[in-house]
Amino acid sequence: MMPHKIVVTINHKLDAEFVRRRVEARLDQLRRDYVEKIARCDISWSGNVATIQASALGHSVLTQIFLTEKQVRIEASLPWMLASLSGKIENLIMKNAKDTLTKN
User: Fold this and answer.
1) Where are the domains of the chain?
2) What are phi and psi of 17, to 5 degrees?
3) Contacts of 35 (CB under 8 A, 6+ apart)
4) pTM summary value
5) What is the residue-averaged pLDDT of the chain?
6) For 79, phi and psi rounded to 5 degrees?
7) 68 with 48: CB under 8 angstroms?
8) N or C: which end of the chain has fewer CB within 10 A?
């Protein structure tokens, strides 16, 4: 079966370096708070693209985060067994992305 793809795009008017630092910090926080407790998660950066490979309970999720000067684009490929949860997962991704880009 084909993986289910989620795409979330958030526009912003922030400095690119600020966005990168915020995204890096948020990924580290999420990994510490949640992922490391139940799964394996590897994050690698190539330029302004983060690739996240996570696995739990025999299922793998591949996510890429593309940072540009005007937007953050998140693409997640879910295994078919998680496709029914895609709406909830998309909402969670959207909330985390917006929280990350909120300037404090």
Assistant:
1) 4-101
2) -65, -35
3) 41, 54
4) 0.84
5) 85
6) -65, 155
7) yes
8) C
Percent helix, strand, coil in the chain, to 5, is 45, 40, 20
- What pLDDT was estimated at residue 7? 93
| Other C-beta atoms lying within 10 Å of the C-beta of residue 47 | 7
Q: Which of 86, 84, 59, 72 is nearest to 24 (CA)?
A: 72
pLDDT digit string (tens) for 60-94? 888 999 999 899 999 998 887 777 778 888 888 88
Q: How many residues in total does the chain contain? A: 104
What's 32's DSSP letter?
I
Q: How many CB atoms lie within 10 A of CB 35?
A: 17
